[in-house]
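Action item from last meeting closed. Structure (290 res):
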């Protein structure tokens, strides 16, 4: 019995209507599916990364190269951002009895992640601040590295706190924006305050640094709030209140209080020069596993 469905000829070959529809459907659908798969990148995709920020000379680039090369390499002050792709095995180093470190033999079969190093000079810090993205599959976590041996100097302490304040403020603004545009609040972003150079004699312990930073952030917040009030900003001026970190009705800043404003902070000491960075790498591993 002859087919009742209409047929066409393409290049001299008969083609039925169902086959034509299936072919057209495949031609249209396959590129769309591939595009979605390529755009939906996982945590080891280039759009997802750890952000490495902090004042200059704190050891950021040294930490990146230490993870990348598995050895200490002399560095110079960076003026541009640099992103490297690293296998997760670098976070799982094995230390032998003689103090030598090695990475797991199956490192090549593991997943990878990206680490973005940014310059710490005050005029170049925008490179880090504009890299913060709390959207899905974006910034996995932020490592704010500081020199724990210079915080007894008031100018270096002020410089460190000013940078940290601005960074936390950017996170808070993005978190508030995402919270207003979604039905549920997003998870706070993990932030590690890595207190480097704890092997030096003048280094402060991480517990003292934690208290010191919270105190100084509170003082800076109080100064900024008073400046806004003296400038005539009213309590309903949301644009000016965006400059206030944390609870706008309090001058205090605590790590616990900042959690509801989009950031979960951990403070840990270490030393790249002494290759004591296990706690930092463990923190990074926990972020990747989250």
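Sequence:
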């Amino acid at each position: 019995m002859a087919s009742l469905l209409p047929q066409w000829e393409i290049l001299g070959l008969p083609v039925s209507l169902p086959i034509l529809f299936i072919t057209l459907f495949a031609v249209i659908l396959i590129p769309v599916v591939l595009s979605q798969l390529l755009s939906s990148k996982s945590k080891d995709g280039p759009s997802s990364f750890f952000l490495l920020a902090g004042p200059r000379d704190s050891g950021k680039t040294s930490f990146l190269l230490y993870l990348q090369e598995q050895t200490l390499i002399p560095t110079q002050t960076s003026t541009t951002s640099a992103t490297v792709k690293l296998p997760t095995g670098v976070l799982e180093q094995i230390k032998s009895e003689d103090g030598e470190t090695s990475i797991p033999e199956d490192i090549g079969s593991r997943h990878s992640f990206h680490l973005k190093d940014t310059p710490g000079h005050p005029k170049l810090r925008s490179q880090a601040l504009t890299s913060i993205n709390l959207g899905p599959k974006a910034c996995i976590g932020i490592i704010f590295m500081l020199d724990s041996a210079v915080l007894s100097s008031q100018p270096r302490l002020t410089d460190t706190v000013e940078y940290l304040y601005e960074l936390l403020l950017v996170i808070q603004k993005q978190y508030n924006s995402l919270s207003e545009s979604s039905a549920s609040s997003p998870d706070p972003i993990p932030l590690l305050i890595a207190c480097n150079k704890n092997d030096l004699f003048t280094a402060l312990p991480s517990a003292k640094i934690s208290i010191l930073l919270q105190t100084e952030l509170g003082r800076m917040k109080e100064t900024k709030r008073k400046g806004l009030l003296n400038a005539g900003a009213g309590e309903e001026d949301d644009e000016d209140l965006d400059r206030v970190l944390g609870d706008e009705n309090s001058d205090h800043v605590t790590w616990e209080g900042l959690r509801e404003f989009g950031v979960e902070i951990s403070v840990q000491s270490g030393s790249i020069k002494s290759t004591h960075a296990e706690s930092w790498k463990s923190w990074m591993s926990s972020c990747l596993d989250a």
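Note appended to the action item: The chain has two domains: 7-37, 44-289.
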